[in-house]
Specification:
16 strands
Length: 285
Amino acid sequence: MSKLRIAIQKSGRLNQDSLQLLKDCGISIDNGKDQLKASSSNFSLEIFYLRNGDIPQYLKDGVVDAAIIGENLLVEKGEDIQFVEKLGFSKCKVSLAIPKGEEYEGLSFFQNKKIATSYPKTVQDYLAKNNISSQLHIINGSVEIAPNIGLADGICDIVSSGSTLFKNNLKEVEVILKSEAVLAVSPKLEVAQQDILNKLQFRIQSVLKGRRSKYILLNAPNDKLEKIIDILPGMRSPTVLPLAEEGWSSVHSVLDKNQFWEIIDELKSNGAEGILVCPIEKMVV
């Protein structure tokens, strides 16, 4: 039986979130400690645990059919590799940073300066696009220490919370790229694996829609029902059921969690009562 071979990070920030996503998709993984490869017992899937930096090449060569990988790594090492889904976790930025004491008035600061980075292609393309010429020092590891030891005038690296920059007396001055985890696909993907990938992507989309949404139930006086329904976006339109108490209805709908509190405030001001909010595990539309 054909299986979809999918790569995930062996260890690090992407590993646990990737495994949790697959678990939420109903995929059971038979995984012993320190295994480099594992199979699912209930889905046609084989997982390869790989070093993050090696995954783009495995995709190019067709050794794996798909991968959960940071978009930033595709930009750096896999520009010819397509992704089919943004996954909403492991969000970060690839940014330029300089010592806090330095004055910064624009990208011209980096003209003829030294920049330490683990992302030479990304930063070189960005600088070239802006007609800036800099000398790059390629470092695999703790890039942030480079200015402190006199190796570079600035750095280009991943920034998540900014705490690492702060600890190393650096400040972010330019955001080159905003990144998150994506589902990337090998250019050598075969038809049989494409069918399995489509099924996996459908499950992932259902999980992600659930994560982005909240289920809401509320009681509304009938004389304000029309206004309350107008406020609720819903999947198509809210469900309205009569209550035992005359003149009242129960309204059920789905809200985007990013708009949640603003809509709740508006609902309350228009007479909604007894508002209940529930998480959504998965949402199939």
